[in-house]
Amino acid sequence: MNTTIARLRPITATQTVKSQSQARPMAVGGALRTFEPIRSYTTSVSAEPFLNGTSSNYVEEMYYAWLENPRSVHKSWDIIFRNANAGVSPGAAYQSPPSLGGAALGLANAQAMVGAQPNMEKLVEDHLAVQSLVRAYQVRGHHIAKLDPLDIGVIDFDESPVMLGLKKVGFYGLDESDLDKVFRLPTTTFIGGSESVLPLREIISRLEMAYCQSIGVEFMFINDLEQCQWIRQKFERPGVMQFTLEEKRTLLTRMVRSTKFEEFLQRKWSSEKRFGLEGCESLIPALKTIIDKSSMNGVESIIMGMPHRGRLNVLANVIHKELDQIFCQFDSNLEAADEGSGDVKYHLGMWHRRINRVTDRNITLSLMANPSHLEAVDPVVQGKTKAEQFYCGDTEGKRVMSILLHGDAAFAGQGVVYETFHLSDLPSYTTHGTVHVVVNNQVGFTTDPRVARSSSYPTDVAKVVNAPIFHVNADDPEAVMYVCNVAAEWRATFHKDVVVDLVCYRRNGHNEMDEPLFTQPLMYKQIKKQKGVLQKYSEKLLAEGAVSRQDYEEEIAKYDKICEEAHARSKDEKILHIKHWLDSPWPGFFNVDGQPKSMTSLSTGLPEEELVHIGYIASSVPVEDFTIHRGLSRILKGRAAMVGQRVCDWALGEYMAFGSLLKEGTHIRLSGQDVERGTFSHRHHVLHDQKIDRRICIPMNHISPNQAPYTVCNSSLSEYGVLGFELGFALASPNALVLWEAQFGDFHNTAQCIIDQFICPGQAKWGRQNGIVLLLPHGMEGMGPEHSSARPERFLQMCNEDPDTYPEFAVRQLYDCNWIIVNCSTPANYFHVLRRQILQAFRKPLIVITPKSLLRHPEAKSSFDDMLPGTHFQRLIPDSGPVCENPEAVKRIVFCTGKVYYELTRERNNRGNDDTVAIVRIEQLSPFPFDQVKVETDRYPNADLVWCQEEHKNQGYYDYVKPRLRTTVDRTRPVWYAGRGPAAAPATGNKAAHLVELQRFLDTAFNLDAFTEQS
Questions:
Q1: Closest C-alpha to 286, from 486, 454, 117
Q2: Within this chain, do residues 672 and 790 fall inside the same structural domain, yes or no?
Q3: CA of 897: how far to CAs of 826, 836, 979, in Å?
Q4: Which helix H or strand E contains 688, and what residues bound it?
Q5: Which of 566, 638, 774, 943 is 20 to 30 A from 787 (CA-CA)?
Q6: Are 294 and 382 in a shared domain?
Q7: Distance between CA atoms of 676 and 661, rounded to whole angstroms?
Q8: Would 389 be classed as within a structural domain?
């Protein structure tokens, strides 16, 4: 055996490599030397293609070390550097170098050895080749790992073959005669354990054990040396995947429960959809392993999100929901509770606090309810996790964490996955690492992965945030357990995302009623022959003697008995109680001293001294030596002037509402694109020092010494992900005002899934109240079809209110509605509705159609008198002008909402109709103010009714308002329309056409004969 060894040490990312121009002269033997004379020489003996351009730098570093101390490098390099300095050409032949035991050569001996150069080149190249080989396994070993339990190879890599294995060493410049040569291992691998040298054959064997068995690791794209070295240690050290007898038995028990739960459901309800876990039963021990390890690391609360596949099993065997509560859901005669529509069993969530039996520590587990819209729950989970971290002061994510489960097709195909990943490291959104578990069925519903994604793996999207990806064969439970332990440790160590890709299969079709052979015949022929993972693992442990046949059968019988007893109890359940399925309970919120909170309407006004105090904070820079922009100085002076005049505009009204709630102890979080300044440069809640980069001041956090914190954060350019995140944050606690502002109102349409599936029906489906606020800028300003309309008609269409029924009690309307929709026309009303959102005894989503031009409209200001104690939100603002003097002479009531009111009043003044046309503003559209509208229609008994809006007839509010106005007057009077005609786009792109349309509908609104003639 050839025992010639060379030490190979690669350049790391943290080392500084001197360029040729920076090379410092060194003295060797009385002469000054630089790297330049041997640059071409070393290039000829380096393995440039295998080290991606780093080998020349490496040799240069070693050369400088040799100049300082010739004994610091191996003798083979000593010979090369001495020959190069002596002027020997790279191609010259000379004799073999001495063995390792030989004495050091002097310069004269080195010069005498001219003629051995080819052998020396081979030696250097071989060692560089070994390093390249190690790197190749680290980069591409997962390509040939045994990941697929079906062994059908659905993953498409690039067409070039993977040059790994004993027979492929020629690709690296080695041959079979080198397999028994001994090489010193580079510091970038840990396969040697305590050994620093190994034969090439053993090096390859250990690399294949580390990277090419049931686990495939993708991590070499990570640009952090420490993280890469950490992963290498976890997978390369010999013997890392060793488990104790107790660990194996625990794993088998968990596999039994996972498998037998599905078999029990199939036995009892064979014709029911349940989206079972068959084919990936190892998911249950995988999740329990992550939870165990995280609990060991100090985590006290875990928030989880997942699609429907395997949800019932996770609820039963991970969250520990009572089995009888799960089984009763299959009873078709189960009656619904009084409130809400409910949802199917495989969409529901749960919250549970229990003891972790492995660590004997308390842990809270929350599985969030999720619709069929796969991955939609991802940002919601992250928002709830962030909120829990915030409220318990967990600034590093050591106590609260999230686990997200994904399907392979959805993980690759759903854009919200990318949006969620991009929130993972943002300061106001990070949850300090999420463990992602992909249940990789290797097929979508019926869609083959080769036409479902462009990447090799479904997990490639995770590379955008440098998350390591651990692919694992789900039919190897021990490999799954090891990988999940590593994933949990990674999250605890680096507080960054990590992905576990459970490569499995789906034994049944998309659901238990589906026939998969229609579309995947070859795959499902193989699946029918596939032995179950529990059977394979039990046979392995029985063969090892880790368990006995009797113990194994007793474990199965024990769990079957648990299921049968729970099934018997489930027959006693007659009513679905949604409280059993809450994933975000708010203990103590709905009651005071054991009694339900009062439903009476409270004043939302404030003492004048408090308004003045908050106003002056809003007008100041409460930090010394802070330089603000000159334009901002004028804005702050203008605010101070308004405070002195006892008036406020929209921005100051918002400041008053926020500041007062903060002072009262309510945390406020405002998020969205550009919310710190405001899209229309009106808010300025974050001030930036004009001289010092990144120095900011948030005056709102200087309202009071004991105030709650104010979080205002510009978001990424995302609506779907960010709105979902804020919804999750709002679900965590009722004692916070959480607001999301769209840059323009129509931007909410890219977050429509969150609105349609979570915000609108959330309480009805899942019993979850939440008080999130959506601020949607809206208004026809002649600026084109985009950014004009917040599409209020969509929100109004989804209201659960009956337009044909006159309600009895206004506050009860609020409690019964699914959300509240307002279009405020005054800063004072905006102020009140924000405060009401927190002060009322329950929580409902609030949709605010916010203004654009009214932000600076000289008439859109409110007096402090409208915000003092005793004042409150006005659902409807009646006309208080000359029409009140002789209401019977009024010929028309024009009902409207929002900005168009100011255009109507201007037109009325120009026409001189002040005493014949009343203009009434409906500020709260849903729930509709039937009672107050009736007061107005009764006040003007001879007036016809007109609804005026600036939106097109098939958009806006008309179709919503008309039947409610008709119900209010008991259908005794018609309701006419004044506004733009029907159109496909929200607004014209031509300014002149916009003005023509505006004047036309204003003419219609004030032409007192127009509707009479139509009738």
A1: 486
A2: yes
A3: 11, 20, 12
A4: strand 687-688
A5: 638
A6: yes
A7: 18
A8: yes
